[in-house]
Amino acid sequence: xxxxxxxxxxxxxxxxxxxxxxxxxxxxxxxxxxxxxxxxxxxxxxxxxxxxxxxxxxxxxxxxxxxxxxxxxxxxxxxxxxxxxxxxxxxxxxxxxxxxxxxxxxxxxxxxxxxxxxxxxxxxxxxxxxxxxxxxxxxxxxxxxxxxxxxxxxxxxxxxxxxxxxxxxxxxxxxxxxxxxxxxxxxxxxxxxxxxxxxxxxxxxxxxxxxxxxxxxxxxxxxxxxxxxxxxxxxxxxxxxxxxxxxxxxxxxxxxxxxxxxxxxxxxxxxxxxxxxxxxxxxxxxxxxxxxxxxxxxxxxxxxxxxxxxxxxxxxxxxxxxxxxxxxxxxxxxxxxxxxxxxxxxxxxxxxxxxxxxxxxxxxxxxxxxxxxxxxxxxxxxxxxxxxxxxxxxxxxxxxxxxxxxxxxxxxxxxxxxxxxxxxxxxxxxxxxxxxxxxxxxxxxxxxxxxxxxxxx
Length: 457
Known about the structure:
The protein is α+β, with helices and mostly antiparallel strands. It has 17 helices and twelve strands.
């Protein structure tokens, strides 16, 4: 079972797809994914553009080649839905944009798009800047903090204040926090061989479906808030108002559909942004030269005042630092699709029901695409290049019809947050041992102990 051609399969006229080495009885490659998912995914490229792995009994085509990924996400996008893994994730995560498929996904995306127009993000940016400045100002020079929980609280605070005009509802806060504890385990569920076997043996001893209680309790609170908004009828300037006001030829979002999309925004607006901000501050704190250049840029653009939405396009070096952070640590480290009709990627033929994975993390560390891919080098991104990087080689927000609808929201929040945490202080690591990546629903650091030092005036 150690050969890279173990268990190869061929359909007439199709290229042989090798099975990755290390497949074990019953669990397949789940053990490798559990112990070293990131290294395992990067090593698969040596076996060809497409490699077959197994999650328990479930075969999965792991796509390693950027051109194949481009086909998957753009040219052949309508031949795929989100796949069996997302069928499992609907119980803890709902059926919003992240898990929805087909016409439902397209309709919801069209209806949600106005909530992320430029002028709306400008309004959200005022909240982002004010909350980031307040959180940063609370960090006294000479003190050390683990920024992982700090950043989590910050991004949740920003999200609640941009989603809801009046976010201080104790029931809402409690329901969100309870649901977040469940969603962090969702990727583990999706990659579980037990879940894969349960599809074939429904009464498998020891298998427990995910608890739908936290999601339902959060939905119940949201429905009460939606009732208040509908009775009021005003545009309060927040994301929820835009979701309720959105309409089109196929009608507006129903209340259950709105709650699904609020769940989507909770997932993306907390995990994705908080992980990316933590990794950015991790890399900045380790590199005095990068930190000096950020300070010089902030001094020149802001001249001591808090940053605003109009400053974001001017902070070009900060954008390059963030682009390099998202390259090395893409929050969505593993993405999934399932063929819904016969389709060919390159010379690999897929049948309806075939599962497909691809890893932005592995693509971003491919030495054929990026020179010295393990190194943190913001200067690999010339000015404006991060915004124009090919979508199949730079995938922190996905691509094609599944491109993250909140990408501009995320770039804005990340830029304003980095400015807030670095403008008036110098950051240094507070621990000698390495920060470890945790692979879950997003790729995040296990901790981030940093010390703040006052900058000379």
